[in-house]
Amino acid sequence: MNAQPIQAIAIGASAGAVQALLRILPALPADFPLPVLIVVHVPPDRSNALVALFQSKCPLPVREAEDKEPIAAGTIYFAPSDYHLLVEADRSLALSWDEPVNHSRPAIDVLLQSAADAYGPALAGIVLTGANHDGAAGLAAVADAGGFAIAQEPAEAQVATMPAAALAACPSASAMTLDDMIFYLLTLATT
Asked: Can you give the residue ranges of every domain in the chain?
């Protein structure tokens, strides 16, 4: 655990994402002080229904990220369909239509790497269930920047490939169950 207080959470998920996030996000109380930035692999031709789904279930405000938007505390941001979500050095959001990474746009690696650059040791990065290797390099970047790297316990994940790849790429990462993650995140709210 790093000594610097965490100032932001970045989460990536793919296959099985909705079920995993439905466990985590509604557990965050209305006074949770940190922004939560999320990339879920959504097909580009499909509108992103995640915001509406989670708005009805979460005490925190849930929104789709907008380009050049300053990151607000206590807000959950989802990457829009077919755009990479990045964190700028001034800790605002940026959207990019650059090439897909790991066959994905938005890509988890893009979010985690840019957030690690912006927040350094003040970032907690989380890789959840999924069927490819997106997020592995990003989680390693979080750890390299001094942040706290977490991957879902592969045995618990609906699809273990992505968290297993993240743990392989980032041996210092903590493997946690969803319940462990919720407990960890709630401790951040009180520090």
From this structure: 8-188
- 3-state class percentages of the chain: helix first, strand second, coil last, to nearest 5: 30, 20, 45
pTM above 0.85, yes or no: yes
Q: Which of 84, 104, 133, 134 is catalytic?
A: 134
* pLDDT tens-digit series, residues 166-188: 999 999 999 999 999 999 999 99
- Burial-class residue 23 by CB neighbours within 10 Å (0-12, 13-18, 19+): middle
Using one digit for the tens of pLDDT, what is the confidence trace for 33-44? Answer: 999 999 999 877
Of 106, 132, 135, 100, residue with least CA distance to 12: 135
**14 tagged catalytic:** yes
Q: Which of 14, 81, 104, 114 is catalytic?
A: 14
For residue 96, indicate whether it is catalytic.
Answer: no
Cα(44)–Cα(97) distance, rounded to whole angstroms? 11
Q: How many whole angstroms separate alpha carbon 102 and alpha carbon 23?
A: 26
Catalytically annotated residue among 41, 104, 114, 133: 41
The verdict on whether 134 is a catalytic residue reads yes
Query: Can you identify the CATH homologous superfamily of domain 8-188?
Result: Methylesterase CheB, C-terminal domain (3.40.50.180)
